[in-house]
């Protein structure tokens, strides 16, 4: 067949940052080597992740980081986003004790090796692995304790690594910490809705901890000349119809997810609709806390993977609790959409829409960085997944060649990245100030509650041998990174639904 006609080359701005992302607990392993336990050790060793999986070994990146950086170089990445394990630096969570020499050495060597390879580090301070010792003292529910502890930990990181790190991310996805950790219980510490308030309390303290770290950086480390931001997750919610109640439902869905954490930072307080629904169950900021939070992020880190429709329920939900408070009919999905192995709908135009929404609503100084975007999809495990009862098919890669063990072809991921990078490009053309894009993830890794079965990597990891193999999506992204752009998707490669 004739090769499909391309609609042109999508060039990104010259200074655009292209990178890959990971997090400590998901890749490092070496859980007992000088590191204290975190809530994710406790949660996973108690059997809460699929198949009893834990991060004890993961990708053994702790020992293999030099090899991993060589791989990054071959993938032409310009920037690498990773996280520091709090309990590797402070095994007991106690900043009054000197930080672990072993932990300091590991991150120091990692940073040196990255810089030597010409790769810019973007460092997340908290990607969900709270030291167990701090959880025992109340964790994210204990305001005074946690805000101070996070500030002290951040100060240690700025002090030791700030000569080499110019981009800091305080928190990864506080929504996940609050809702999955303190409402659904899918993530550590695994609280299920014992109260209809806990996730708001945790969220409140996460925000205050972020503000504390940002303030410490700006007041004590200004001479380092770096930036400090936050990464928030959200998936676009599109109104299911033009009816006013559905438009309103979509707005509420956005405000209860992204707005919950973005509005105190960019607009001065929680979204009005949250206060109206939650009343006093949503904590309030004092005047000085509001001031500390306002504009406390030098850039807007956005993690986005998917999108969905929102509509008003036929009658108001009964009871209180996070989901009831939103009062939006959830997961009303257009069944034409493809799904990834996580079952998340593939909706590339959602990424364009959410970027334009963030630009328009928050006008973030320093612009927007897509700090995560990617998909779980592996032809070689999809045969088994296809047999799930009720799996929503068709999948976009049905009929594509299945991978063999020596050949990691992942055309569905190539297609995903091509479509989503086109969406980012479309948002930039419409004046969204998007400054960077990090693919999730550099390596297949410990996918939290899903264990090792769901693979997000552009590099295949054999968890028996720790062998790494670049997938075709890795080769594809390497070309994008090098060319600073990509060929627009051909027509037949586009997904159903709106185009650009
Ligand atoms: C990220 O969280 C994490 O930062 C990262 O550690 C993790 O490995 C990665 O994603 C992959 O899971 O069906 O439209 O409602 C992602 C947070 C929240 C994104 C729920 C997808 C549901 C999609 N996720 N959301 S939808």
UniProtKB/TrEMBL annotation:
InterPro entries: GH (IPR017853), GH_1_N_CS (IPR033132), Glyco_hydro_1 (IPR001360). It comes from the Eukaryota. SUPFAM superfamilies: (Trans)glycosidases. PROSITE patterns: GLYCOSYL_HYDROL_F1_2. Keywords: Glycosidase, Hydrolase. Belongs to the glycosyl hydrolase 1 family. This is Beta-glucosidase. It comes from Durusdinium trenchii.
